[in-house]
């Protein structure tokens, strides 16, 4: 597959009480078009900082980001960013929440409204379009938040601990839902997670970052030998524990 998102030699710092502290150190890797890649690393190593750099919310001290050969500078509408909380607006209906990004970007055309309705119908939310967020389950709210991000047609999707606010059972079900949506929509996706099983079950590859200042420690291709794989089902695959043990050992900061 052709590399679509290129992350080249990214280094950055943040301001702390005792001065500037390095956060990322010469981070480089590529993501192919339609590929799902997870980023794992020790707590506080800079995973979310890297997503903020890719989204254009933070300017790196060094390095460059390219999407489809084009260098990214500043905030870019081609990048969709989904955070841990769904951030649905309580006073807007689910449909009004989903088209909110289109309104902000002045893209609320008839064609895009039809696309929003298509996504809602395809992924089981159309019958709830006139409901309010408080009337939906956590899993359905997260699905609505994902559709809100997808409806603006971003070239690259960033998910930052997007499922961690959900209870365990709901989280497992939602990862299946989200995985199917991302693969069906062929979205180039980066997922930041502290959950190793989630990273393995959701991804085509897993990038392991070191302790801060983070550099790329290793990159693992995930292959269960199943064409129609789903995140919950592959947790029973014999290869799953092998991947888990390798990544778990690499996350030990004393190794």
Can you tell me about this structure?
With 255 residues, the protein is of the alpha/beta class. The chain is 35% helix and 26% strand. It contains nine helices and ten strands. The protein has helices at residues 47-55, 94-98, 100-104, 110-122, 138-150, 168-185, 196-202, 231-234, 238-251; strands spanning 3-16, 19-32, 36-40, 62-67, 70-71, 79-82, 156-160, 188-192, 205-209, 216-221. A six-stranded mixed beta sheet has the order 6-7-8-3-9-10, with helices on both faces. Helix 5 packs parallel to helix 6 and helix 7 (196-202) packs across helix 9. The radius of gyration is 18 Å and the shape is globular. The two termini are 33 Å apart. The relative contact order is 0.18.
Average the pLDDT over all residues and give the rounded result. 88
CA radius of gyration: 18 Å
- Quickly count the helices: 9
Q: How much helix is in the residues?
A: 25-40%
Identify the strand order in the major beta sheet.
Answer: 6-7-8-3-9-10
Q: Class by helix and strand content?
A: alpha/beta
- How would you sum up the global shape? globular
Termini gap? 33 Å
Q: Which band does the percent of strand residues land in?
A: 25-35%
Number of beta strands: 10
The H/E string reads EEEHEEEHHHHEHEHEEHH
